[in-house]
Design a protein that fits this description.
- The chain has about 260 residues and is of the alpha/beta class.
- The chain has a single domain (about 20-255), classed as Undecaprenyl pyrophosphate synthetase (3-Layer(aba) Sandwich).
- Helices cover about 40% and strands about 15% of the residues.
- It is built from eight helices and six strands; from the N terminus they run E-H-H-E-H-E-H-E-H-H-E-E-H-H.
- The protein has helices at about 30-35, 40-60, 80-100, 120-130, 145-160, 170-175, 225-235, 245-255, and strands at about 20-25, 65-70, 105-110, 135-145, 190, 210-215.
- A six-stranded parallel sheet has the order 3-4-2-1-5-6, sandwiched between helices.
- Strand 3, helix 4 and strand 4 (about 135-145) form a beta-alpha-beta unit.
- Helix 1 (about 30-35) packs across helix 2 (about 40-60), helix 2 (about 40-60) runs parallel beside helix 3 (about 80-100) and helix 3 (about 80-100) packs parallel to helix 4 (about 120-130).
- The protein is globular and about 55 Å long.
- About 30% of the residues are buried.
- The protein binds 3-methylbut-3-enyl trihydrogen diphosphate (2 copies) and magnesium ion (MG).
- Magnesium ion binds near residues 26 and 194.
Length: about 260
């Protein structure tokens, strides 16, 4: 059983500060092209934005931050760009792991790691272990991740764990623990930079009731001020989870007395 409320099985508690923020960091290539630089320069510059957002989330008490770094479809890019992203991933892990441990940040990766170089797989495991006892913020990178892959791998693991399961016995409760984000509550706030308004196969299952925020700001330009704009927008949302506004109002009245 999961320790978190599923938004479709019950109404989760909505907090003023999002507990879980999920970000599609998009627009690195365009940021570089605008400056007549190679696309990959935008990826390097994007690292600075990751650092700012991680530290600001840690500071204000966000519990989970999940960022999309490489999708299962990003292998379709030119091999030189994919190779550069892989090197950058390894280099940044090596450079940041001690800093994360010092800042009490628990690091994790979701996605199919088997397609990565063994050096990356080892560094991921090392970083996860080194920060496993940290309690301040859980920072997750989605790498070779796809929402459809996630649901399929969860189905496979669910069937393997319950081999005699009949179709009518398959429930959300049985499947959920096998999803790759089973350790976290569903995201409260989704942010996509770079102007596109699509999910690009990010956390498809988990985004069922997430508030979706889109900004034209390109990822390397995203900073603490932009993050707070997203939080301010989030704080204005009425999270109904299927109910009516009148029901929410009467609930607030009864909570107040
Ligand atoms: C996001 O930026 C980073 C990755 C997908 C790795 P892009 O590289 O997609 O940048 P744009 O969208 O082409 O500007
Ligand atoms: C989504 O961005 C994936 C990541 C940010 C890692 P893309 O740039 O790959 O998405 P599309 O292709 O524009 O949908
Ligand atoms: Mg893009």
């Amino acid at each position: 059983m999961t320790k978190y409320t599923s938004s479709t099985l019950a109404v989760p508690e909505a907090s003023a500060i999002p507990r879980h923020v999920a970000i599609i960091m998009d627009g690195n290539g365009r940021w570089a092209s605008k400056r007549l630089m190679p696309r990959v320069a935008g990826h390097s510059e994007g690292l600075g934005a990751v650092r700012k957002v991680v530290e600001e989330c840690r500071r204000i008490g966000v519990e989970y931050l999940t960022v999309f770094a490489f999708s299962s479809e990003n292998w379709r890019r030119p091999p030189e760009e994919v190779g550069f992203l892989m090197k950058l991933f390894l280099k940044s892990l090596k450079g940041e792991v001690s800093r994360m441990a010092e800042n009490d940040i628990a690091f994790s990766v979701i996605g199919d790691l088997s397609r990565f170089d063994p050096a990356i797989q080892e560094m991921v495991h090392f970083s996860e272990q080194k920060t496993a006892a940290c309690k301040g913020l859980t920072f997750t990178i989605a790498a070779n991740y796809g929402g459809r892959w996630d649901i399929l791998q969860a189905m496979r693991r669910c069937i393997a764990a319950n081999p005699n399961l009949k179709p009518e016995q398959v429930t959300e409760e049985l499947l959920q623990p096998h999803l790759s984000m089973a350790f976290a509550p569903e995201p409260d706030l989704f942010i996509r930079t770079g102007g596109e308004q699509r999910t690009s196969n990010f956390l498809l299952w988990q985004l069922a009731y997430t508030e979706l925020y889109f900004t034209d700001v390109l990822w390397p330009d995203f900073d603490e001020a932009e993050l707070h704009k997203a939080f301010d927008w989030y704080s204005q949302r009425e999270r109904r989870f299927g109910r009516t506004s009148a029901q929410l109002a009467s609930q607030a009245m009864s909570d107040a007395v």
